[in-house]
Design brief:
The structure is a homodimer of 457-residue chains. With 457 residues, chain A is of the alpha/beta class. The first copy, chain A, folds into 3 domains: 143 residues, FAD/NAD(P)-binding domain (3-Layer(bba) Sandwich); 126 residues, FAD/NAD(P)-binding domain (3-Layer(bba) Sandwich); 116 residues, FAD/NAD(P)-binding domain, CATH 3.50.50.60. In chain A, 25% of the residues lie in helices and 28% in strands. Chain A contains 12 helices and 25 strands. In chain A, the strands form 7 sheets. Chain A has a 5-stranded parallel β-sheet with strand order 3-2-1-7-18. The first copy, chain A, has a 5-stranded parallel β-sheet with strand order 9-16-10-11-12, with helices on one face. Chain A has a 5-stranded antiparallel β-sheet with strand order 21-22-25-24-23, with helices on both faces. In chain A, a hairpin with a 4-residue loop joins β14 and β15. Chain A is globular and about 65 Å long. The first copy, chain A, starts with 5 loop residues before the first strand and ends with a helix.
Chain lengths: 457, 457
C-alpha cells in the first residue's frame, strides 16, 4: 500500500494513543506509528489506587493491548521503543529498542509529541532510597503494591488528589499510614486555604494519621532502605515505605532538544492548533501548556480530559496540514474532583488565590447547604465557595466540599465560568428539584444569592 | 405603626409564603398579610411520599409554623381563612373564617395570587369514591397513609413522578401495589416514548405490579368504598385504595373571577413582571403560566423552583410598584428529576415530541455510557438522549436515565439549553474526571459527539 503521508506519535499512555487514532481517522491513507518506551500503551493511570489497594491487577487498567490497538485503529504500535531524538524539520527520528539496545533512524513527514508528565521527587536527602516511590505508571503501581503489607508503616507525602487517593488505598491495604499535608491543607492549589484546612478533619479514618508537616529528608538503613522520614517540625516518623505525591512536571526534553519552546508554565508552548514553533512538530497531552480561559493565562493542566482534547486537535491539524482543514483548541476551564475518605471535593476555574495572583479584583463567598432534602438518605451538608470578580460579578471559580453531590454539581459551573456568566444569572436557572436527589433551592443557587448580596449589599 | 402600603398574598403553600416574605423584604414598612384557607402554611409537598411510606409524620414537612413565620418574616398570617373574592382595582378583598363561617371585607393596596394547582381526578365513574385519593396536600398525605396497611391492595393510576413516588412509598408501607402506566410509558411528557417504555422494566420491585393499561372506572361496594378498578383492557383489578396521580390543574378561579386572563396553557397569563391584566393584581407559583425559553411557548410548569422564582419577582414588583424598581422573570428552561425504585430519571428542556409539536426541525440521539469508571462502586450504565435542532445543532433538550448520576448531570444542561448552545461547544467542555465519580469522557460529552456525527456525518 502507498501511504499519503507518515506521522510519528511519541508517547503511549493517553494523549498519544488518542492522537494516533485521530490522525488515522482524519487521514485513513496515512501511515501512523505510535512509539512507547515501556511495554504497555493506553492505560488508565487514574485507577492506580485500585491496584495499590489490592484486588485489581495493574493489567486490568490497560484499555487496549498494543496488538488490539493496531488492529482496531490501523496504527502501527512500537512498544519497548524509546525515541532518543527527533529532527522534525528534517523529517528524522532516531529510535532505540529498549530491550536489545539496537537503534535506528526513520523518516516521518510529521511528528506529534505526547510525552506526558513525570511525577517529581522532592529535592531532599535519600529521595531515591529503596521503597521511596512516586506513583504515575503501572510499574509504579506494582512496585508500591508489592511493598505494602498489613501493619506496615507508610508515609505519604503530599495531600493533593494523588496523595489522598494513595493514602486511602494504602489504608485499605491494611497499612498504617501517615499522610503529610504541609500546613494542614488538603488539596492545596485546588481549594483556597480556608476550605483546604477545614477539610482536614474529614481525612480521618482508622489506620491513618494526618500531620501538618512537610517532609524534609528520608532516613535509610545500611541497606539503603527507607527507615524513617524527618519533617520540618524536626519530627522523625518511622516507616518502611514513602510515597511522594508532591507534583508532576511536563516531560519536554525530546521536544525542546529539537528546538521547541517552553512557555511560562514550564510546559511546551503551542498554538491553538497544538503546533510548536518547530516545523512539522505538534504536541499534546500533559507535556503542553494550555490557555486558561478564565484569566487568559497559559498554565499546565495535567488532567486526562484536557489531554484527550488537545490530542484530537493536534492530530487533526497534523494529519490535515498542507491539505486544508484545521481544528482549534479553545482553552481550558480547569475542573477537577476527588472522592476519598467518604467525602467529595471539586474545584472549577480559579481559586481566590489564583484570581489574586492574576491581578483580578475578586472576592469569595462561602455557604453551606443540604445536598438533598435532609430527610432523605445520603443528604449531607455541602460547602460551596464561589470566587467572583468585582464590580460586575463574573463567576471566576467554584469549590465544593461535602460527603455528597460535590463533584457532579461542579460540572454545572464549567460552562458558566467558560462563558463568563455573572452570578445574577445563576439566580435565574431552574435546577432539578426532587427530595432524594436535590433540595428545593440548590446549593449553587444559595451560593449565587450570597454572592449577589456581597456584591450589592 | 403607620404602614407605607398593604399587600394581600393569597395561598400559603410555597409561592405564597415566599412572595409574602419577599414583599416585606422589599418594603419593610408595608403591611403584608398571607391568607391560607387550610390550617398550615409553608410545607414541602414533595416529601409527601415519606409520609405515605410511614415514619415521617406530615407535621414534619412543615417548614414554618404560622406564628413562627409571622415572627421571623414580619408578615401577618391568617390560616383557616378563605379568600372568597377579590376586586383588586377597587382594593377590596372578601374573606371568610372557614371554621366559624364568619366573613368580612378588607382593603388592600395590592394583591398577589398564589393559589397554586390542584391534583385532578380523571372523569371516570366513582372517581370520588371513599378511598379514592389524590395526593397534593398534607391532608391528602394523611388520608392515604391511614388507608394503607400491609398486604392491602392499592392501585396507583399514572406513572408520572407523583405516581412513581406514591407507588414506591405504598410498596414500602407493605401494600400490594398495581401501578397503571398507560402504554407502558414511565414519566410520559418528561421522557420521549423510546426512553419511557425502555424504563418500564426498571419499575420492578417485590410488591409491585406494573400494567400498561389506563383506568376507566372505579367499582365501589354498597358502602361506596373502592372495591376494584376497571381498565381499558376490560380488566378488573381488585383493590381497597386508588390513588390518582394523573395530573394537576392551575387553581385560577379567584383571579379569573376578578377579571384575570387565562393563557394558552390554561394557567393565568402574566407579564414578565408577574403582573396580571387586572390593576393591582400580581400572580405567581403553580397558578401562572411561564415562558419556556427553549421555544418561547407559554406553558404551565408546576415545579417548586419555578414557583419560588416567580414569587420573588411578583413580590418585588408588587411591593415596589409606583415607587420605582422592577424585577423581570426571564422564563423557564424546565428541568425535573426523580429517583425511585433505584433508578434516576431527569429531563431538561424539550423532549423530541415537544420540539416537534413546536414546529422545530429536531432529531434525537441516544447513547449509553458509564456513570463512573466501571471498576468503581456505584458505576452503572447511563442512558442519555439529546434533542437537537437542525441545521445548526442547537441543544433543545436532554433526557437521562440510569441508576446513578442522572439527576445532577441534568443540571449541567440547564444553562446550555437556556443559552442556546450548539452541541459542538459541549465537545470543548472540561468536565471533572475522577474514577469514583465520573469516567474520563463524561456521558454528556459522548452524547454531544454522537449528536455532532448525526448532524454532520
Amino acid at each position: 500500500m502507498r501511504y499519503s503521508q507518515s506521522i510519528a506519535v511519541i508517547g503511549g499512555v493517553a494523549a498519544g494513543p488518542a492522537a494516533a487514532a485521530e490522525a488515522k481517522r482524519t487521514d485513513p491513507d496515512a501511515r501512523v506509528v505510535l512509539f512507547e518506551r515501556g511495554g504497555v500503551i493506553s492505560y488508565g493511570a487514574c485507577e492506580i489506587p485500585l491496584v495499590i489497594e489490592g484486588g485489581v491487577p495493574s493489567q486490568d487498567l490497560i484499555l487496549f493491548g498494543a496488538q488490539e490497538f493496531e488492529e482496531e485503529k490501523g496504527v502501527e504500535v512500537r512498544i519497548w521503543t524509546n525515541v532518543d531524538r527527533i529532527a522534525p524539520a528534517r523529517n528524522r527520528l532516531w529510535a532505540r529498542d529498549t530491550k536489545s539496545g539496537a537503534s535506528w533512524e526513520e523518516r516521518f513527514d510529521k511528528f506529534i509529541v505526547a510525552t506526558g508528565a513525570v511525577a517529581t521527587r522532592p529535592q531532599v536527602e535519600n529521595a531515591n532510597a529503596k521503597n521511596a516511590f512516586v506513583v504515575r505508571t503501572l510499574d509504579d503501581a506494582d512496585a508500591v503494591r508489592s511493598s505494602i503489607q498489613p501493619g506496615l508503616s507508610v508515609v505519604v507525602a503530599g495531600a493533593g488528589y494523588v496523595g489522598l487517593e494513595v493514602a486511602e488505598a494504602a489504608v485499605r491495604a491494611g497499612a498504617r499510614v501517615t499522610l503529610l499535608a504541609p500546613g494542614g491543607r488538603i488539596l492545596p492549589g485546588y481549594l483556597d486555604d480556608e476550605l483546604a484546612t477545614a477539610l482536614a478533619p474529614s481525612v480521618k479514618t482508622s489506620g491513618l494519621q494526618l500531620r501538618a508537616e512537610r517532609l524534609t529528608s528520608v532516613v535509610v538503613d545500611p541497606a539503603g532502605r527507607v527507615q524513617a522520614v524527618m519533617t520540618d517540625a524536626r519530627e522523625r516518623i518511622g516507616c518502611k515505605v514513602v510515597v511522594f505525591a508532591t507534583g508532576v512536571a511536563p516531560e519536554t526534553a525530546l521536544a525542546t532538544e529539537a528546538g521547541a519552546r517552553i512557555g511560562e508554565s514550564g510546559a511546551l508552548r503551542v498554538t491553538d492548533s497544538m503546533k510548536t514553533n518547530v516545523p512539522n512538530l505538534w504536541a499534546c497531552g500533559d507535556c503542553v501548556e494550555v490557555r486558561r480561559v478564565v484569566d487568559d493565562k497559559n498554565v499546565h493542566v495535567p488532567l486526562s480530559p484536557v489531554a484527550y482534547r488537545t490530542a484530537r486537535v493536534a492530530a487533526r491539524n497534523a494529519a490535515s496540514s498542507g491539505r486544508g482543514g484545521s481544528s482549534k483548541f479553545d482553552g481550558v476551564c480547569p475542573a477537577s474532583a476527588v472522592k476519598v475518605f467518604g467525602f467529595e471535593a471539586a474545584s472549577v476555574g480559579l481559586t481566590l488565590a489564583q484570581a489574586n495572583e492574576s491581578g483580578l479584583d475578586a472576592f469569595a463567598v462561602d455557604i453551606e447547604h443540604w445536598s438533598r432534602v435532609k430527610l432523605y438518605p445520603g443528604a449531607s451538608r455541602l460547602k460551596v465557595r464561589f470566587v467572583v470578580e468585582r464590580p460586575r460579578g463574573r463567576l471566576l471559580g467554584g469549590q465544593l466540599v461535602g460527603n455528597d453531590g460535590a463533584a457532579m454539581r461542579a460540572n454545572v459551573l464549567v460552562p458558566l465560568i467558560r462563558d463568563r456568566w455573572q452570578i445574577d444569572r445563576i439566580d435565574n436557572l431552574d435546577f432539578v428539584y426532587n427530595p432524594p436527589v436535590a433540595p428545593p433551592l440548590d446549593p449553587l443557587y444559595i451560593a449565587a444569592r450570597a454572592a449577589i448580596r456581597e456584591l450589592r449589599p
